[in-house]
């Protein structure tokens, strides 16, 4: 059973499991179906907040439960309550749980000297935030703590995803470059000399990790990222290549000048995660590179926009990065 099946990660995960021979029940709020799924995939509606509905859906049991939308300790308790009817679980977590050796993490990055100085790359043994209810990172940490405490009752693989990318994303960072190219903006500005690295995670590569973990049940925590962590300048060049356009880039030595030079990947220090454990324990090899994944992402983004306002299409992205396309500020900065 897959919870959150019609989301960005759920769609390719269902495909990967079916290809591996699983009979899949795809649960989502609307009970929808992806056009790429095999006809044998059973689709059902599920209100995640309804404990009884979830228990009824599991019924007499399932060999594997994949949860791509679990968020906090309450969701963990939902799953552990079903431990006697579930063979094993794979649950998607986040790299947002990590802290550096001074206790800095995603929650502190906006403050003075608050950006974390992680080791490069970050292993799964890196300290994590204290479980809580105050932020995305602390809620995911609470989710992990509750599930790992279940021990042998429910073997669970926790996948810590990075900057997830691919079609159907509610927070498509690639829009930064795609929309500029569609708008005819052939000059761009990148802070930190375009060298920022925030490790991406293709939804297809996460699906491959799901497939591998499903075949090797166990209790473990693994990073779930792509095979490479390109710089923001390299990402921009890859998007340009996928769209067949040429651009010029101005590099700032330091941080953004207000909104100028700011991108969804612009970080002062590298955020890169170690994939050695996934390779060692599951035999993981990425099924797609970042550049190879881009054509599908570009096509999807272009279709979603379709002349509509980007804030209406992607409200979560707009809340996270409200000045993502402040062309007026960019033009004023160039002429100053």
Describe what you observe in this structure:
The chain is α/β, with parallel strands linked by helices. Helices cover 34% and strands 15% of the residues. It has twelve helices and eleven strands. It has helices at 10-19, 51-58, 73-80, 136-149, 175-182, 203-215, 232-243, 276-282, 290-305, 310-313, 315-320, 327-335; strands at 2-3, 25-28, 42-45, 62-67, 86-94, 156-161, 163-165, 187-190, 200-202, 220-224, 248-251. The strands form three sheets. Strands 3-2-1-4-5-6-10 form a seven-stranded parallel sheet, with helices on both faces. Strands 7-9 form a two-stranded parallel sheet. Helix 1 (10-19) crosses helix 6, helix 3 (73-80) packs parallel to helix 4 and helix 7 (232-243) packs across helix 9 (290-305). The longest helix is centred in the C-terminal third of the chain and has 16 residues, at 290-305. It is globular, with a radius of gyration of 20 Å. The mean pLDDT is 97.
Task: Furnish the topology, listing elements before pairings.
Elements: E1 2-3, H1 10-19, E2 25-28, E3 42-45, H2 51-58, E4 62-67, H3 73-80, E5 86-94, H4 136-149, E6 156-161, E7 163-165, H5 175-182, E8 187-190, E9 200-202, H6 203-215, E10 220-224, H7 232-243, E11 248-251, H8 276-282, H9 290-305, H10 310-313, H11 315-320, H12 327-335
Parallel strand pairs: 1-2, 1-4, 2-3, 4-5, 5-6, 6-10, 7-9, 8-11
Helix pairs in contact: 1-6, 3-4, 7-9
């Amino acid at each position: 059973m897959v919870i959150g099946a019609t989301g960005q990660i759920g769609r390719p995960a269902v495909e990967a499991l079916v290809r591996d021979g699983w009979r899949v029940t795809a649960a989502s709020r609307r009970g929808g179906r992806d056009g790429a799924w095999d006809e044998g995939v059973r689709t059902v509606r599920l209100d995640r907040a309804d404990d009884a509905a979830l228990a009824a859906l599991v019924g007499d049991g399932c060999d594997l439960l994949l949860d791509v939308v679990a968020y906090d300790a309450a969701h963990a308790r939902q799953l552990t309550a079903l431990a006697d009817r579930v063979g094993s679980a794979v649950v998607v977590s986040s790299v947002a749980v990590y802290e550096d050796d001074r206790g800095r993490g995603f929650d502190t990055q906006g403050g003075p000297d608050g950006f974390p100085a992680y080791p490069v790359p970050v292993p799964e043994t890196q300290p994590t935030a204290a479980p809580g209810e105050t932020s995305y990172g602390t809620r995911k940490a609470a989710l992990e703590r509750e599930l790992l405490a279940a021990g042998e009752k429910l073997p669970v693989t926790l996948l810590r995803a990075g900057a997830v990318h691919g079609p159907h994303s509610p927070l498509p960072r690639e829009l930064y470059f795609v929309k500029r190219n569609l708008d005819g903006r052939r000059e761009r500005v990148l802070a930190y000399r375009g060298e920022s690295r925030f490790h991406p995670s293709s939804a297809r590569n996460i699906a491959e990790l799901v497939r591998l973990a499903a075949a090797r049940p166990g209790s473990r925590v693994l990073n779930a990222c792509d095979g490479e962590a390109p710089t923001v300048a390299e990402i921009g060049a890859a998007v340009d290549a996928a769209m067949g356009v040429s651009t010029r880039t101005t590099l700032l030595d330091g941080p953004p000048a207000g909104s100028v030079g700011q991108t969804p990947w612009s970080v002062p220090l590298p955020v890169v995660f170690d994939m050695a454990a996934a390779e060692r324990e599951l035999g993981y090899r990425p099924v797609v590179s970042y550049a190879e994944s881009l054509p599908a992402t570009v096509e999807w983004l272009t279709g979603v926009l379709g002349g509509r306002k980007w804030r209406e299409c992607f409200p979560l992205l707009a809340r996270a990065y409200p000045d993502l396309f402040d062309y007026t500020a960019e033009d004023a900065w160039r002429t100053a």
